[in-house]
Amino acid sequence: MLYREAGQFKTTYVEDMAIFPIRQDxxxxxxxxxxxxxGVPLLATxxxxxxxxxxxxxxxxxxxxxxxxxxxxTNILVGYCGQISLGSGAFMAIGAYSAYKLVTGVHIPLAWLxxxxxxxxxxxxxxxxxxxLIAAGVGILxxxxxxxxxxLYLAVATLAAQFFFDWAFLRIPWFTNYxxxxxxxxxxxxxxxxxxxxxxxxxxxxxxxxxxxALLAKNLVRGNLGRQWMAIRDMDIAAELIGIRPLYAxxxxxxxxxxxIGVAGALWAFVYLGSWEPLAFSIDRSLQLLFMVIIGxxxxxxxxxxxxxxxxxxxxxxxxxPAELGVxxxxxxxxxxxxxIFGSLICYLLIKEPHGFARLISIGKxxxxxxxxxx
Amino acid sequence: xRAPDTNEILLQVEAVALSFGGVRALKDVSFNIRKGEIRAxxxxxxxxxxxxxxxxNGFYHPDHGTITFKGRTRDKMQPFxxxxxxxxxxxxxxxxFKGMSxxxxxxxxxxxxxxxxxxxxxxxxxxxxxEELEHRHRVEEIIDFLEIEAxxxxxxxxxxxxxxxxxxxxxxxxMEPELLLLDEPMAGMNLEEKEDMSRFIVDVNNQYGTxxxxxxxxMAVVMDLSESVAVLDHGVKxxxxxxxxxxxxxxxxxxxxxxxx
Lengths: 375, 261
Hints:
The complex is a heterodimer of chains A (about 375) and B (about 260).
Chain A: H1 13-16, H2 23-45, H3 55-80, H4 88-104, E1 106-110, E2 115-119, H5 124-143, H6 151-171, E3 184-185, E4 190-191, E5 194-195, H7 199-221, H8 224-234, H9 236-241, H10 246-273, E6 275-276, H11 283-296, H12 301-325, H13 331-352, H14 356-370
Antiparallel strand pairs in A: 1-2, 3-6, 4-5
Chain B: E1 9-20, E2 23-34, E3 38-42, H1 49-56, E4 64-69, E5 72-74, H2 79-85, E6 87-90, H3 102-108, H4 118-123, H5 127-146, H6 161-174, E7 179-183, H7 191-208, E8 211-215, H8 219-225, E9 228-233, E10 236-241, H9 243-247, H10 250-257
Parallel strand pairs in B: 3-8, 3-9, 6-7, 7-8
Antiparallel strand pairs in B: 1-2, 1-4, 4-5, 9-10
């Protein structure tokens, strides 16, 4: 009964084109942002439940935010533009390693020319953003095959990117600054003199970046470029005949998607992991991102957040529940149960609602508008 | 009905041939479309009508022959060039973007008119927002014109067929085309829907001066709407002229009714 839009008249197209045209949704969003930006830091500073320890921040909120950002990137390519990609993990890795190289300074000796390309160490923020840009460039390169091949075949081509970069970052010592173990360490997170160190600071940094980038991504997908992407996804022939160039639409989707995923990769490495190996961005990560997008809702920015939350939190819950209930189960059994329950849950969800949580939510809203007197 | 302003020729197709493997879909077909007219292309099933439209907007490339559009002659059209040159079309079996709302479908038709690039669109502020609003205003005019205000936010996949056809016409109109190709705009419609669609076609021609070429099987509609009719049969043009001339042509009667052998 509370969820009604009766009486909310829009008198301008700007109001009509708002991200949340219904007032109740705007209030809900404001409350959510209030909790995220003010509530969580307050609770965490005073160690009030559930922030008694840093567990919730470290193990859930931080990875949730960063992977939600990566899922938004994946969603732009897979959900909005319809180009199936299994290489998201690779683009995270490119973002992470590019940012690492830039923050430690790049030196490429060009012996045959008698000179060298040297870039002095950059600031952390510049490195992260440039890392994203480099990922975007590589994304465009790997997007070129999409002009000729579609669907599963394209998925295989992006899979090649995944394996190539897994190999490159593991085997080419230049990328890891010749670290003998192959593992590299994140720099001190210095943002214009502000040093980000404690979990809550890391959380706020990611929250800020993720909120900003989600907003910008939403701007893109509801603008002309977003419509071009969706047009290519839904019917590429008709899109071409109304003057959409497949080349431009597909490559911008690859670029924007890879940029966002690259930034997410740099954050994952610098802010969450601290020190990492190429294994952190393996094919498992790509598949995880793809599942998030499919379960959350293809072609929905909000769905990316919901999908990320589901994929991350459900396994943790499944892990915690038997312990909380005092059921004596060995860790191994729990791990197996986790796979079984999680797998069947995904199957059930996809059968019930193939368009993911985002569609479930919008159906729920439509019903709520008429509740309790549906006609 | 509005008579063509001049005899200026907007599109001239000259001796176009097209084949798919052994099937010869078009055999040296020539015809023209004058600026400002409503031109009908008719013929029995499989006559090559849709192939003809596909050649005109660059979806198929003819084996030989030329296409002259707005004074420029070429061997084949490219879809993007055709769109930029001002050729829009609708499809026989609606080709809308199913996952998008009716509004977004028509807004997508404005793509060629969008000037601000990616970086502006990301910000969606100042000039970018103003441009988006201009396009929205223009699209709302089309929505009013086609009387589809009530369904603008509905995903087109959920719309009934008749309305989908109307949205598709809207998307083509959003391009502000000079030449509008309609492939069976009234297929599968009831009488009332056909009347609505006929009214839209005549109005588009009158209000915007858009030249229209349409394929249609309903002869009553064709004879009422069009100023000239080309008849195709088995990939050959068998008649061309005013509706009355075509109606009385022996070749046309034989193509439609068959001949006693």
